[in-house]
Each structure stands twice: as structure tokens, then as C-alpha cells.
Amino acid sequence: MNIFNVLSEGKSRLHEPSISAMLGYLLDTTKDHGLGDRFFREFLKLLQSHAESATLTEVLSQPFIKTETELEAAFENDGKRCDIDIAISLAPKYKISFYIENKIRSGAARASQLFDYYNAILSETEPEETVYMIFLTPEENKKHYEEEYNKLAVKKNHRKVWLFWSSQEGGILNLFVNILQRDAVGEIDPINEYLRHTIKAFVSHIKARLLREKVTHPYFGEDIGQVVEEVNFESKDGSVYKIVLRDSSQIQVFRGDEKMVAKEILRKIIKEKGFDIKFEKNNTRTIGKKVIQHLKTHRQ
Q1: What is the mean pLDDT of residues 169-182?
Q2: Residue 203: strand, helix, or coil
């Protein structure tokens, strides 16, 4: 079951505030999601790739980045209220603020909105403060948003960045996918089970409902055939994996009851154990069989 899909059935819809809330929650390094500042760091690296800054480099060098995040932050411009979807501050340590205006439907584009919101923010911005205005939209039909983005002109020490709800490299959704992949191969401390499944559901929902992509589920393949061989492996980070070979030659890798991306875990095992197994030009089934053989041989 995907709770995000359920909440979008019938007359219900997950609108921009709901999608922004999920993003804002993970970008807040003080929340109870258990990621600390890991997701926010990936977000900053993405910004760096669009608008390089020595200040951001310094921020990224810190052992922990504390953020203050506000959803639907209220400002005023010419007597009109302006609600910014996500506002992030690094104060008091750094005078840097990030404002994210999230669009998930092309019909929501309004030519002067980003410009008006920026001017509203300026009324409460200190002269030495660095402001990032971030426009977040689907990449499809981007022409609908071009006028709004192009109309925004920012001060010299401010930045404007256009990001996309994309699962490709450089897209916001790819940050979610990267967190899952790094968790799977033990590059980061394990994510709690509830958050892991919530992120998977969110990614699947955005792909299917917002990006209209064909959704695949690499973590949940069907079992094809009977188990003929299996072996356990404990990695250096303490994660315990079970590698399974079925009579169909299918290779599966489990961590507890969860099916993992087999090829990534096999790569991790080969690297940790120093096995002489060529990864390139071999499919998962061939690599998996060799890994099982090597693990069994080294235990004898």
C-alpha cells in the first residue's frame, strides 16, 4: 500500500503544501526523521552545482548543519500576503536563507509570483544576508514556468536557482533515491524502517502522479523458483545480508525481511572481501553465484 496514493484517491488530492511538507520535513535537520543533516547536505551540494559559493563550501565543511525550517512562511508585499512554501535559515551561525517556491502543476504558474515573493522577502532581509530563491517545478512543460522564473531578478549577493522534480541526476527526487541507495550499501547509518518505506512510497507517488513516469520497484521483485542455495554475510558496518540463489538462477539479497538492490550489495561484498570477481560485463546472476561460492569457500 502507498499512503500517498491512497490520500490522492477520489476527491482527495495531495496538493503543493503536502508535497512541500514532506520535502521541508527532511530538510529540517532537527526533526525526528533520524537523517540528521544528511538530506540537507545533499540538497546543498545540488545547489552548489548550480550556483557555486565559497560560503556553501564552508557550511558543508561543518560537522553538523543546523537548520530552522518553516512551511508556508508568511511575508507581505504591497499589502498582499505572500506565503513561501519552504523557508530555511542557517542563522545565527550563518546569514544564509533558502526560500523554495514549489510548483507541481503548470496551471499554478503566475508570471509575477516569484518576483513578488522575492520583494516581500527583501523587506525582512538584512543587507549582508545571502538569499537563495529556489524555483522547484516539474521538468515537463517547463515553458509554462519560464516567464515566471525569467522575470525574477535578484541582488548581486543573492542567487536564484531553478530545480526540477526529477528522478534523474540533478533532480530533487534523485536526492531521495540517493539516500535509499546509500542506506542499502551501508554508506550512511541505517535509516529506520518506517522512514525508509515512507520515502519509497513518496518517490513512487511523485513519479507516477506528478512526473507520469513508469514506476519500477527494484526493491520488491517477485520470487522466481525455489531456493537452492543461500549464505549470510555481515558487513563492516554491522549490516547482515542473506544472499539467495533460486533454481531459476535468480539472485536475491535480503537485510532482515527487506529485499535489497542485489547488485549494489554484491558490489559492496566484493569490495569488502577483496574477491577477484569482475563486476563489469557480468550480470547480477553470474556475479551472485560467484559471490556465494567465494563466501562459502572462505568459511571452510
Answers
A1: 88
A2: helix
